[in-house]
Write a structure and sequence with these properties.
Elements: E1 2-3, E2 14-19, E3 22-27, H1 32-41, E4 46-51, E5 63-69, E6 72-79, H2 87-90, H3 99-103, H4 111-126, H5 134-163, H6 166-187, E7 196-197, E8 200-201, H7 209-232, H8 235-241, H9 249-255, H10 260-263, H11 271-274, H12 295-319, E9 338-341, E10 344-347, H13 349-358, H14 360-371, E11 379-387, E12 390-398, E13 406-410, H15 412-416, H16 419-424, H17 432-439, H18 443-447
Antiparallel strand pairs: 1-3, 2-3, 4-5, 5-6, 7-8, 9-10, 11-12, 12-13
Helix pairs in contact: 4-5, 5-6, 5-12, 5-17, 6-7, 7-12, 12-17, 13-14
Length: 448
């Protein structure tokens, strides 16, 4: 007998082999009626397909494996590992400060969150958490909130693109460019900044940065309502997203989902409130939630979070007081006096003259700090921040040397991607990409 599809629960006595006519089963014993019944239950319409590329995450780096019965998804799985970079392993061969240049490249849409989480863990091991200058913490918060807005803009823009709402995509990337311009002004780079360092920051804000960010906030207060006009009340947009990618609070808790996915299920959990860091407990802001548990609710949560981030950024600008941006301990403090010279961004000439002219010991110490790095006491620490996508945690282990013994990240994209099957199974094929877009995964953070 031949069959074009695998027989579910076929008896062990039925051996299978493939021929040019299809699969052939040789029955050597057992209950013939049971075998005939199982063949009759085989669904000729059920097939397995690889879906994509659609969402940017599925362009060669995320494999969506769907078993479909007609237009209905009966099983959904994720294939990952195509973007594996070995960042965590590479960090074991670099100094503690050099580690920031690796972690910033993980989730490349939220580099400043990666840097902050890592530096907070290193500072916890060093025991200098309370010694970080106030100005450095305020700038860290401001940069993270700018990064939250830019990440959410990509989520909304790419999600809109999948729905055919190309205007939403154009507006999203238009606004994100303004934030990347601010990042370039402050850090020298649009992405992969390595700006936040153990002990503080790589450099202070350059002249004109505060005015630039204030002007940026004004533009966003003007531009954000456009997304409401375009999408929030749009019946086509709502019809495409409501009740799609449904995952209730119980499902979020069981799968470890955090961030907008969890808050769209009605739980106002945010580490900035639950486990404050960098002085977040002193800022006035709210935690937006929704009770729809679907893709539309996640869109609304991200839109509301961007407004709250603007409110936090305004408070940061008002709090900026003159002061250092690096811890005072010279055995830890990486040189943070940078200036733009003829050869690009580097240590200012005045700083170099001071190091070389003060004493030979100062010069030797500077050389050893940069080339060898500082030592971190033996131990381990876990630190977590509320990234744009959810809880971003880092577990750092030190053996007392100048390099980490082990660094491991709990990336929210990796954990949230587990919800894909729960959101998609039982739904339509056309809704899979909408659900994946609402998760907003970045595979650089998943594969690390």
């Amino acid at each position: 007998m031949t069959a074009s599809n695998a027989i579910p629960h076929a008896p062990q006595q039925a051996e299978e082999r493939k021929t040019t006519e299809g699969r052939v089963f040789t029955v050597t014993g057992g209950d013939w009626d049971e075998l005939a019944e199982s063949v009759g239950k085989a669904d000729d319409e059920r097939i397995v397909v690889n879906m994509g590329p659609q969402h940017p995450s599925t362009h060669g780096v995320l494999r969506l494996i769907l078993e479909i019965d007609g237009e209905t998804v009966t099983e959904a799985r994720c294939g990952i590992g195509y973007l594996h970079t070995g960042i965590e392993k590479n960090m074991e061969y670099r100094t503690w400060t050099q580690g920031t240049t690796f972690v910033t490249r993980m989730d490349y849409l939220t580099p400043l969150f990666n840097e902050t989480a890592y530096c907070l863990a290193v500072e916890k091991l060093l025991g200098i958490t309370d010694q970080i200058p106030d100005r450095a913490n305020v700038i860290r918060v401001m940069m993270m909130e700018l990064n939250r807005i830019s990440s959410h803009l990509v989520a909304i823009a790419t999600g809109g693109m999948e729905l055919g709402a190309t205007t939403v995509m154009i507006y999203g990337f238009r606004d994100r460019e303004m934030i990347l311009d601010a990042f370039e002004l402050i850090t020298g780079l649009r992405m992969n900044h390595a700006y936040i360092r153990p002990g503080g920051l790589a450099q202070d804000l350059p002249p004109g940065a505060v005015d630039h960010v204030r002007e940026l906030v004004k533009k966003f207060h003007k531009n954000l309502p456009e997304y409401d006009k375009l999408a929030t009340g749009n019946p086509v947009f709502k019809g495409r997203m409501q009740d799609v990618g449904y995952l209730d609070l119980a499902g979020c808790m069981a799968l470890g989902a955090t961030g907008p996915i969890l808050r769209a299920a009605g739980l106002p959990h945010d580490l900035r409130k639950a486990q404050p860091y960098c002085g977040y407990e002193s800022y006035d802001f709210e935690i937006p939630t929704a009770d729809t548990c679907d893709s539309y609710g996640r869109f609304l949560v991200r839109l509301a979070e961007m407004r709250q981030s603007l409110h936090i950024i305004e408070q940061c600008l008002d709090r900026l007081e003159p002061g250092p941006v690096m811890v005072a301990d010279k055995k830890i403090a990486w040189p943070a006096q940078l200036a733009l010279g003829s050869d690009g961004l580097g240590n200012s000439l005045d700083h170099i003259k001071k190091i070389m002219g003060t004493s030979m010991e100062a010069l030797i110490h500077h050389f050893k700090l940069v080339t060898e790095g500082f030592r971190v006491p033996p131990g381990q620490a876990y630190s977590a921040v509320e990234s744009a996508k959810g809880e971003l945690g880092v577990h750092v282990v030190s053996d007392g040397g100048t390099r980490p013994q082990r660094v491991h990240f709990r990336d929210p994209s990796f954990t949230n991607l587990q919800t894909m099957a729960a959101m998609c199974e039982g739904g339509m094929v056309a809704d899979v990409i909408v659900a994946v877009a609402s998760i907003d995964p970045v595979m650089g953070g998943v594969d690390r």
